[in-house]
Specification:
CATH topology of chain A: Chemotaxis protein chec
CATH architecture of chain A: 3-Layer(aba) Sandwich
Number of strands of chain A: 8
CATH superfamily of chain C: Response regulator
Mean pLDDT of chain C: 91
Radius of gyration of chain A: 17 Å
Largest interface: A-C, 23 and 20 residues
Order of helices and strands of chain C: EHEHEHEHEH
Strand content of chain A: 25-35%
Number of domains of chain A: 1
CATH architecture of chain C: 3-Layer(aba) Sandwich
CATH superfamily of chain A: CheC-like
Strand content of chain C: 15-25%
Helix content of chain C: 25-40%
Number of domains of chain C: 1
Low-confidence stretches of chain C: none
Number of helices of chain A: 6
Oligomer: heterotrimer
CATH class of chain C: Alpha Beta
Chains: A alpha+beta, B alpha+beta, C alpha/beta
CATH class of chain A: Alpha Beta
Strand order of the largest sheet of chain C: 2-1-3-4-5
Shape of chain A: globular
Number of helices of chain C: 5
Chain lengths: ~210, ~325, ~120
Amino acid sequence: MTASAQAVSVSLNEEQRDCYQELTNVAMGQAADRLARLLDVYVVLPIPKVNLIEASDLRMAIQDAETDKAMSAVCQGFIGSGIAGEALLLFNDTSFNDLASLMNYSGELDRYGELELLMDVSSLLIGACIQGIGEQLEIHFNQGHPVVLGQHCKPGDLLKAGNHQWTQTLAIEIHYTIEHVNIDCDLLLLFTEDSVVRLNNKINYLLD
Amino acid sequence: MTDANIELGDIHWLMDILQNIDVGLVVLDRDYNIQLWNGFMESHSGLSPQKTRGENLFELFSEIPRDWFMKKAEPVFQLKTRTFTIWEQRPYLFRFKNYRPITGRASVMYQNTSIIPLESIDRSVNHICVIIYDVTDTAVSQADAESARESLSERNRTDLLTGLNNRNFWLSEMEREFNRCQRSVLPSSLVLFDIDGFRRINLNHGHQTGDQLLRSIAASLQQMLRQTDIICRYSGEMFAALLVDTDEEEAAVFAERIRVMVSNLQDSHLPTDSPVSVSLGIARFQNDFPLAQDWLQAADKALYHAKQSGGNQYSIYQPEHTPGQD
Amino acid sequence: MATNVLICDDSSFARKQMARALPSGWQVDVHFAGDGLEGLDAIRAGKGEVVFLDLTMPNLDGYGVLEAIRREDLPAMVIVVSGDIQPDAQDRVKKLGAMAFIKKPVDAEKARSVLAEYGILTGA
């Protein structure tokens, strides 16, 4: 394995993009299944978006995910076989009421109540997604502790601009909605720049 | 790493690591009975592995809410997923004292935990491992940053001498109420008041006495307030109160209570020779005030009338500028 | 005689995976379709005696394909192959006439046993 420290230009051809999309499709299906069983609902599965994005586009990607509504977000790092990244779960604040009733949450739905719900859902969705992708690529991902990026924030304020150590990276975006209720959230998987090269190698092996 | 490679000697030092590692490791079986309890846990709980082995987690540690913990742990058994708790949710799982007298400023250890599935040979999950991380430092420094932010924003709205709201904060609240009133049928009133002859008190007894008088009045005012009343030191010896859902009659009752409170003020730091009194002006919101400023001016006019009529009284604003009743 | 097998999935990677999972020694002519509309055309043209059908696809999704097959009474035995493994999704496709459900990533052993169970796999 050659780990080059200098900036590697990352690339993604159509075949690779298709492969990432399919891997994600399977992983998010597993995540949705867990959520569906937990909440006793049907989760609508979209086609995931796979893109190479510039650091400067990250905020836009997130703002794009949801416009100007107040959001809460949890971030969790993962690493395995030299492939590292972070998962970001953005939760629309208007989702909490329905979520609380689906989860039979009996406490008061204040900041702490919302934090509990946020943590439970993010544990589930992020964990299942990461593990799902890992299993298909035969990577065991270790997960770091979740970090609450903010509650009741504008999406643009959740990430500070200009302190990213990468220029371009792979982003996978999944927009989950739940049938008949007002719950929606975005799951964004971002890999570090140097991980993308290794990931692409893994993918190429699958594509052979 | 495969288990087949681990020889007996290796197990010995693996156990050493387990005992000495600076995180807590607890293995639980399906009934939440403790199966493994490492050195970290022993040191902090004072309970030996022999004491805890086979004991039920919830019986041994009553501080752990069973329902809450099971909500986090059951998915680990059932779905083979990992779950996490962070100190922001619940400061700790196990109530351990913070043992550092010098660097420790929190009384308890803040904890993050990971709960991971442990697969048996047949790939079923009959045990889970709870990993406990000491995150007191992070929690304390974050709490510091937060309280600094809070006191900063507190400072931005507080009058330093009296501890009441300052004028800027009050004006913005008043403006907001003014806008709300335009859409509401409920009345709201302003009361503007100042201390009669305050300059004379300053002159005769010194500024320190004057300041003490302001503080003393502010302290008594705070006792009288309802939850929704917003009061401030407007300027010098002038105070302003915003009374939500209050018409002029109710505001007059409030004003009279202030007048009586001030005239009965007992404070050993204050001069006993000259009695202290206040004059008050009351203005109820009216739809023909074009601006919030006009509402304030109306209260000011009423205050002026009260002063003109000899002070130590309140006056209610009348559009025709006649002095109100005493 | 070779059986006409259609693999209908918008992902070329998934189509390849599915094709690889087909039992060796099974006499088949494999056809591919990239979305539901293409798939339906292939089925109408007799290329889909056995169909491996994905659910989430652009243009026409798997549910739409199943509805059309039923409406037009097309001779196709459909095995849904999907990442959407929610109980609800499985119920829905069964109600729409799918013969079986295989979860992704598809595994050769599972494909073989499903085909054998329904007596499709003969002579292999």
